[in-house]
Design brief:
Helix 1 packs antiparallel against helix 2. By secondary structure, the chain is an alpha+beta fold. Strand 8 and strand 9 form a beta hairpin. It has two domains: 102 residues, 2,3-Dihydroxybiphenyl 1,2-Dioxygenase, domain 1; 122 residues, 2,3-Dihydroxybiphenyl 1,2-Dioxygenase, domain 1 (Roll), CATH 3.10.180.10. Strands 10, 11, 12, 13, 14, 15, 16, 17 and 18 form a nine-stranded mixed beta sheet that branches. Helix content is 18%, strand content 36%.
């Protein structure tokens, strides 16, 4: 027991069961009979205290990733209050409201850029089955046009139908120009755009939001050409460009 540590937390609720379902779905807390257990803390939801979104202390809760957490917030009945923003070089911050209307903060540590290769294929679903079988990957999207394949929760490979343009135009031929060098989770996206201009890198597609409208993945991209003509895509973290949704529905 550490002197001065916050040990117990009461969270106001309008519907205890709904609040319990929200915090279980979004943050993985365990809940039973109106009480909860979170990492390093226990507490309870109570209808005896009114929820507040505009006053009092603000609780910040750590999450492992940005977009999946924000997606769970909305699916579980919460609301995004603002667009995520980077605090220094180490973390993303975003404020949300739970189903009762309590405002809470979500903290996600900045990740290092990761290669997220995308290849053009003739049959997305067949290729997905092939890579899943060969490498033990798991589908995270599905469908005939686009697929994300994961290993241990991490994105390993993206598959895109060669003839489907979506909002970005044709990808290219399978086995040839259809290979993109994709780097995601880039926290200093605006700085990358500035450095690309300094390098005089040809811009294949100017900075834009993906998708142009709607909820996910809600990141920004810039498509460039490297010195050898390879297309390089740099993307901010999923969820970074998600706008607030005052009505509670995905925006």
């Amino acid at each position: 027991m550490t002197h001065g540590r916050i040990d117990y937390l009461q969270l106001p609720a309008l519907d205890v069961d709904r609040s319990a379902a929200f915090y279980t779905a979004v943050f993985g807390w365990s809940a039973e009979n109106g009480s909860f257990e979170a990492p390093g803390m226990i507490g309870q939801w109570t209808t005896a205290r009114p929820p507040r979104a505009d006053a009092g202390p603000l609780v910040w809760i750590r999450a492992d990733d940005l977009f999946p957490t924000l997606h769970r917030v909305v699916e579980a009945g919460g609301r995004l209050c603002e667009r995520p923003y980077r605090d220094g070089t180490e973390r993303w911050l975003v404020e949300v409201e739970d189903p009762a209307g309590n405002r809470i903060g979500v903290v996600v540590h900045v990740r290092a850029p990761r290669s997220q290769t995308l290849i053009a294929v003739r049959d997305v679903e067949a290729s997905s089955r092939w890579y899943q079988r060969l490498l033990g990957l798991r589908s995270d999207h599905g469908g005939p046009h686009y697929e994300r394949l994961l290993a241990g929760g991490e994105l390993v490979l993206q598959l895109h139908h060669a003839d489907v343009e979506h909002h970005h135009g044709p990808i290219g031929d399978p086995g040839g120009s259809g290979v993109l060098l994709w780097f995601g989770d880039v926290s200093d996206f605006d700085d990358v755009v500035a450095r690309a201009a300094e390098l005089g890198a040809p811009v294949v597609r100017a900075p834009h939001r993906n998708p142009p409208e709607g909820f996910g993945p809600g990141h920004r991209e810039v498509w460039l050409s490297d010195p050898d003509g390879y297309t390089v895509v740099v993307a901010s973290p999923d969820g970074e460009a998600i706008e607030p949704n005052p009505g509670g529905a995905p925006s």
